[in-house]
Design goal:
The protein is of the alpha/beta class. Helices cover about 40% and strands about 20% of the residues. It has an 8-stranded mixed beta sheet, sandwiched between helices. Strands 3-4 form a two-stranded antiparallel sheet. A two-stranded antiparallel ribbon has the order 6-7. A hairpin with an 8-residue loop joins strand 6 and strand 7. Helix 3 crosses helix 4 and helix 6 runs parallel beside helix 8.
């Protein structure tokens, strides 16, 4: 669909109230898993983030990278083991996680953002003691539970006009490396930054009343409604920990949390700069109930 110039101007005018709403505000984007695998989509996501950045949104990108970690482990002859959806992480695996997330993926995202005309700097959760952690459970090894977030390094970068790209590894005072769940890290970082919103990019449409029917998308859920949706099995399986993170972010002071489908081109822009709203929005209830 080719737009003429008048239509282009119309699009921008429609976006104006949203641009004003988000100008100067912090938006945390959690990006990972299968939304990262398609290079063309990845390029589009980075373009969206740079556009938001250039219109005055203070963008923070938090990423995981489970599939790439599994891939590297296979190549070095290590088997990936999961307990309750969490990767069992011995010392060597923790080092591989650090290499993949803070090295390969983090730097790749930084260079893509810079290629689109943005200014980006990669941080791992170990830098500036950003993500402090302790062992979550003994049987999981170096899978970390977050004990604290030190947000100053992120705020310093935002102040200087950079997009911080955060890889989700943590450390303890002894210098051990911990593998941190990216959804949990994004929620805690968004709360520590008192972000306007957290956008979690996944590979589903959002929360569906009937998981086999994409037309049953629930576009808004308050924090109080979520537990009954879990009891009724509407939020189930791998979505439960994701939704728990959404709730934690809202309780921590984030205004809105969106779960959106990262496979839709420009999903972030549709969610933030139009009145469409394409995913599921979580909010505390009361006056925040608009996209």
């Amino acid at each position: 669909m080719e737009l003429n110039n008048a239509q282009r101007a119309q699009v921008l005018i429609h976006a104006l109230p949203y641009i004003q709403k988000y100008n100067g505000k912090i938006v945390v984007v959690k990006y990972g898993g299968n939304a990262m695998i398609n290079d063309e989509l990845k390029e589009a996501v980075m373009g969206d983030l740079v556009l938001l950045h250039l219109i005055g949104v203070r963008v923070v990108l938090v990423h995981g990278g489970g599939p790439e970690i599994s891939d590297l482990m296979k190549r070095v002859g290590k088997e990936s083991r999961f307990v309750d959806g969490l990767r069992v992480t011995d010392k060597e695996t923790a080092e591989l996680v650090l290499m993949v997330l803070a090295g390969k993926i983090g730097k790749n995202l930084v260079s893509l953002l810079q290629g689109k005309g943005g200014k980006a700097i990669g941080l791992s959760g170990m830098d500036g003691a950003l993500i402090q952690a302790k062992p979550l459970r003994e049987d999981l090894g170096y899978v970390g539970e977050i004990t604290g977030i030190h947000a100053d390094p992120v705020l310093d970068l935002l102040e200087k006009g950079y997009i911080p790209v955060i890889s989700t590894v943590g450390s303890d005072p002894q210098g051990n490396v911990y593998n941190i769940n990216a959804d949990t890290a994004a929620a805690r970082i968004a709360a520590a930054l008192q972000a306007e919103c957290l956008i979690s990019m996944t590979d589903i449409r959002g929360i569906l009343r009937d998981k086999d029917d994409p037309d049953t998308l629930i576009s808004r859920i308050t924090v109080d409604e979520a537990p009954s949706l879990m009891r009724d099995g509407i939020i189930s399986g791998g979505m439960i920990p994701k939704v728990d993170c959404c709730i934690e972010a809202i309780r921590g002071g984030v205004n809105r949390v969106f779960i959106i489908d990262g496979r839709i081109p420009h999903a972030i822009l549709i969610e933030t700069l139009t009145d469409e709203g394409i995913g599921t929005m979580f909010y505390s209830g009361g006056s925040h109930g608009q996209h």
